[in-house]
Design brief:
This is ABC-2 family transporter protein. With 266 residues, the protein is mainly alpha-helical. 74% of the residues lie in helices and 2% in strands. A two-stranded antiparallel ribbon has the order 1-2. α3 packs antiparallel against α8, α9 runs antiparallel to α13 and α9 runs parallel beside α14.
């Protein structure tokens, strides 16, 4: 309990410092609001063009697809607001030796990396994603109950954590290899594909890849399936199992990477 309170204090301090630094340069603080909102609208127009003449994808109609796009956008927006810019810098810090500064501090280096570069400029993405989710619920004729919404929120939280774990795992490869660039490119390609196609359309080798190896195929699919009452017990168990496996694997690779790390100055 004492350690948890200390970590929460550290997170609060990191967030306060980040906001203070951003407010020193007002354009740096407010500029991302405009940029991220424009990027989101462009993506929305692309999705509209793709699905304009499509009534169904697999067993899902337009309502479910809109809900899927909104859900994936929400998970990605949480990622962009909280931890992406901190975690994304791990490879560069390993190469440059800046990781030394994190290892010598009396706080978990991963905790600091996760929260030290929050991005308030991506907050509009959260709002716009919420609007799309609400529209998808209405378009799909889904009757919302408190328990249904609570369960949906739970699955979005689980999949957001899974998203985080995959990002950390891929970037932790830089502890062992000269460059994790190829893995990051693979990550971006998988994300781009799965943001447009729900997991229900994947079969065979594609299902193995996007349900197990790069589990982007389940990140928005399972929350939507729960909200539309399509999620089976097997599907729910699979989602939890994948999150647990990646938590164990990521923790192992990170710890081994820290042990393997040699300072650039040594």
């Amino acid at each position: 309990m004492g350690r948890m309170k200390r970590n929460l204090r550290v997170v609060r301090v990191l967030i306060d410092m980040r906001i203070q630094n951003l407010m020193m340069y007002r354009l740096s603080f407010f500029g991302p609001f405009f940029v991220d909102s424009c990027v989101f609208l462009v993506q929305l127009f692309v999705f509209q063009a793709v699905y304009y003449n499509v009534d169904r994808i697999g067993t899902w109609g337009k309502g479910q697809m809109i809900l899927y796009i909104g859900t994936f956008s929400m998970i990605n927006a949480i990622n962009m607001v909280i931890y992406f810019f901190g975690i994304n810098g791990i490879p560069d810090k390993i190469k440059s030796g800046d990781m030394d500064l994190y290892l010598t501090k009396p706080v978990s280096p991963l905790l600091r990396l996760t929260f030290e570069r929050i991005n308030p400029g991506a907050v509009p993405l959260l709002i716009l994603s919420g609007v799309i989710i609400a529209y998808g619920i209405r378009k799909g004729g889904i009757e919302i109950t408190p328990s249904l919404m609570l369960g949906y929120t739970f699955w979005v939280a689980v999949m957001t954590v899974l998203y985080y774990l995959v990002e950390v795992l891929i970037r932790s490869l830089s502890f062992f290899i000269l460059s994790s660039g190829s893995a990051v490119i693979l990550e971006e390609t998988g994300l781009s594909l799965c943001m447009q196609l729900p997991g229900i359309v994947f079969y065979g080798a594609y299902k193995v890849i996007f349900y197990m190896i790069l589990p982007y195929g389940i990140m928005a699919t399972i929350p939507v399936q729960f909200l539309t009452r399509e999620l089976t017990l097997g599907g729910a168990m699979w989602g939890i199992s994948v999150a647990v496996v990646f938590a164990i694997l990521t923790a192992f690779v990170w710890k081994q990477g820290i042990k393997h790390y040699n300072s650039a100055s040594s």
